[in-house]
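Recall that a protein's primary structure is simply its ordered list of amino acids. Everything else, from secondary elements to tertiary packing, is in principle encoded there. The following example makes that idea concrete.
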Amino acid sequence: MQVQFREFNPFDVWFWIEFSTTPSPQEQQYIEELFDSWFFIGKLGGFNAENLQVQEEGLEIGYMDYSERVADDSMLALMHNMGEFEYCANWGRCWFDLGTSDAIALDVLANSLRQLSLDYVSIERLIIGGQNEDWPIPESHEAQFADYN
C-alpha cells in the first residue's frame, strides 16, 4: 500500500483510499470501523505527542512511574470533526478536521490501514490531503459531519 501526501491542512483534510477493486459491503465496514475508531481516539486526545511517557521510557516499563503532572502539563491534542465515509467505484474518501491532534495520528492510521490491507481489504493507495480530479469535493463539509456527540 502506497502512502502519498498532497496539500495538507489539518483543519480541512480529505483522506482518499484507492482499493484494488470495488469494496464489498463487508470491506466497507472494516474501513469505516477503522476510521471511526481512529477518530474516537483522536477526539479523546489519544494522539498527543507531548505525553508519550511509556514510549519514551523504552523497553523497561515494569513498575514505571506514570506522571499525572506531565500528562496535565501537555497541551490538548484533540480531533474535532469527521465526515461520512463515501465510495465511488474503487475509491473511498472521508473528510476530517484533525484539530490539534499531533502527526503521530497519521502514522497510526497508515500503520493500521497497511495491516488491514494485508489481512482483509486490498488497498492500493492512501492519499492524505489534496483532491482527486476524478471525484470533486463539495464546497462545504458541514452537512456531511457524522454525529458523534
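The chain is about 30% helix and 20% strand. Residues 106 and 121 are 19 Å apart (CA to CA).
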